[in-house]
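Task: encode each sequence below as structure tokens.

Item 1
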Amino acid sequence: MDTASLICDRGRAIDTSGIRKVFQLAATLKDPINLSIGQPDFAVPDPIKRAAIDAIENNHNGYTASQGIPPLVERVNAELTKDLGWDTTSDIHQTLITSGTAGALLLLFLALVGPGDEAIIPDPYFVMYPHLATIAGGKAVRCDMYPDFRMTAERVEPLITERTKFVLFNSPNNPSGVVSPKDDCKELLELCRANGVLLVSDEIYDEFTFADGMTDVSANDASEARCPSPARFDGAQDDVLVIRGFGKTYGCTGWRMGYATGPKPVVDAMQRIQGYSFVCAPSISQWGALAAMDVDMVDTVSAYAARRDKVHGRLSELTDVAYPQGAFYSFPKVPEHLGVTGTEFVNRCIERNLLIIPGGAFSDRDTHVRLSFAAPEAKLDAGLDVLCELMSG
């Protein structure tokens, strides 16, 4: 049987992620300098491990409600009230525990995007954004954010059409690490409200924001200093869907834990689809995530800020590179005097046993590269040495 002929257009339209390709390549190399994957290099804190082990030993190994275990849903809602000032007891609000933020994003696209529908995404973007639109049968409309990597209302407004379902906002941004300022968040929220478009805020790195990316206080004075978010403004609960997760902050990326919270009609549709797809988020991981919410990661984030300073200090002397205020990425431009694309530059790096990601994996342009500084210090230093040598030409 020619099974290849059975693949439908959807299956043919999805290519392997550029990140996963490099991940697979890393497995074939001997001791590579791997600055490609956005996976924290610190161990999961012991209290979180213990909670997951306890869940296994206490036989919390079966299905949970599609929404999530009640203690975790309740704790997330309590934190949202504290952080965003949201009334999570309102009948217009709902929270859904998901299989990672990736699971939340897939459910979002499947719930809101149909044939001919559009979702506005940033460019550069997290690699799965445009493919999720394809899977759902719709179209991802790119918002060009070069050169400062800010998704502003001015840039988004011309892209809104009668088919626009939502604007997908990501700050701190992957791949650039840029944190959008409070005014950008407010203006984008106001634009979406005026056009009857949902604003989706992908905040997977909200806890991984460095001190210089923080705002003073939230717009409604409900929280202490935190990463700016469109969800913090008055009435945002009616107009913003927030997606957050646990894997990046606590180092448990393989546990696949995230959540979506916001307008009940949207979250309810996502939950119904979850019931026929993921069924529920992993039970053991949910108990671990509950414990994670009591773990302070401030010292870890501060240590990563020092790595950021090192990376930015060295690369900014050689090329254009945005200043990362969150996440753990740098997105430098390939120096023009080299006369090569991001992909071609990455190939030169691979010849030196260094793995990074070409900008074309995140963008319609292939002018930059992404490196992750979530790597052991020795590897990071060695990788920077190679990068600086190659960029110097």
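Item 2
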Amino acid sequence: MGMKDFVIISLGGSIIVPEEIDVAFLKRFRSLILNHVRKGRRFIIIVGGGKTCRKYQAAASQATKVTREDLDWIGIHVTRLNAHLLRTLFRDFAHPAVIRHYDEKIQTKKKVIIAAGWKPGHSTDYDAVMWARNFKARTILNLSNIDYVCDKDPKYHRDAKRFERMSWKDFRKLVGNRWDPGLNAPFDPIASRKAQGLGLNVVIMNGRNLANLGNFLNGKKFKGTIIKG
């Protein structure tokens, strides 16, 4: 399989399951991706755990004393559940197995590859970075539940400053250097450090705004934060 021209997407689990599974979104997302597949585009979509992950982790923590590794494994299995849902949507166009490890050897002519979490210590954002490295992609598209990266949460701070472009140095000051299971950050700190080291660009945008996603895929002006350099 050729290794160029793949679009690498890190898809937040909370986009798929904000509270309940968003079937209407899944239908529209499937239609958009397949529209580009039919034009010859290829996608690697790495699926996160999102709110579902954090609900399971909270339940375990309330019921008993749990280790960070246990919490990570809960999150990993939630990413795999979400990924199996997504792979089912693209069944006729996707590699038949959900990929767990970014170094797995894949022999497929399918235009869509669905991947999930691998091991404790980082999020699916990190897996997306490693997929980009392996497939020689320069940009990762991170579909989150925010329009832009801001210096503080705009839900609670009306004076929050948004960034359309950021350096990795400034972004990493914002998110820190420590990974916690269930961390809710625009792009996880461990993944950010690796992406900076590899010289990758990450575009963070609201994954629920599919018209905006379409603009990005079509090379048009879009809303979002570009992290680079």
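Check on item 2: DSSP finds eight helices and nine strands in the chain. The beta strands are 6-11, 42-47, 112-115, 139-144, 149-150, 162-163, 165-167, 201-206, 225-228.
End of task.
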